[in-house]
């Protein structure tokens, strides 16, 4: 049963949640959202400079900052761990719907690493859902449970540098049986992305590779396996910066597999079922990315409001916010933010009501529209801060980089647009029938009213 709306109106955590969404929040979800808001406002946002300082200590760049470790332990004790887990996890799940978790994710997103303090960060959220849904009991005990308990982190390895990254059927990293022992597999190929192997808390990679290149069905050629990071034959060539940032301590890497040998028991679900697994993994994760993006963009907007009313900054004797161009700029950003939130919440609600598959269009809509809109808004906020806005004095450069990166994460925008466009074109025959009916009725009305018939088709 939801709470009366008037009970939520005065709490900042609900100020931007539309009434229709508020009505769908359970009492437990309301309390959880309040706790997440308090956590971010008092524990995480004020600690940003501390994390930066700890990361920059000599020899600590690829080690989890101590403040993150302490916050993770505290969040676990306060019941703020693994909030993303769907109800299918049973007792481990907090029981939030996609819509309810979306409200939490936006608040977490106000700081890039905020979700990590609650074990709700990418790629682990998607990986945990994947393992819970597709792994066998032994795999869950060995790999899933340590991540759920916060004892290690996982990575996802799919993208390759030598093929078109927008077409996953071309993935060419090879997975073959060891000719000396069929109980083992050999991996050979190159991969991009996946957390840096230097991250001390990283435990393993979930890898997608080609195991049956001659299968006439391109969707059955690939297999998903678990690769421990200390597997012989697995080498990280280098850290991949994103727009110049190394994103330590997790980062991104370029990897080379040379006869990397793993047990065949590390195959998830079965050979040739990688695409089935990938599609089951990506839906909710795209929504999580979008809501976190909205959270950080709201924070960028707040900084723009402060700048617009800063009495120390008065070009030509006026506050920055007194110029008509900036008043309109702020209004446009506000409208865009609120519109994007509705788009993502609609996708989350659709998944709750009809399932992930039925929500495919709404998920794609969010994935396409939100990163671009957020990048544009952050760019405007950066512009309002002048030269200082593009420096480390403000969080805008990292915020913008994350928004820009998400346009590629979990599939490039162009691929999603292509899919949406193809789906729309399939509707054309039915639409034509509808318009043909207009035309027939128009002819009937012409005869009835004695009006000269003119074709408009």
What does this structure look like?
The chain has 457 residues and is α+β, with helices and mostly antiparallel strands. It contains 13 helices and seven strands. The strands form two sheets. It has a four-stranded antiparallel beta sheet, with no helix packed on it. The protein has a three-stranded mixed beta sheet with strand order 1-4-5. Strand 2 and strand 3 form a beta hairpin. Helix 5 packs across helix 8, helix 8 packs parallel to helix 10 and helix 9 packs antiparallel against helix 10. GO terms for molecular function: acyl-CoA dehydrogenase activity; flavin adenine dinucleotide binding. Belongs to the acyl-CoA dehydrogenase family. InterPro entries: Acyl-CoA_dehydrogenase, Acyl-CoA_Oxase/DH_mid-dom_sf, AcylCo_DH-like_C, AcylCo_DH/oxidase_C, AcylCoA_DH/ox_N, AcylCoA_DH/ox_N_sf, AcylCoA_DH/oxidase_NM_dom_sf.
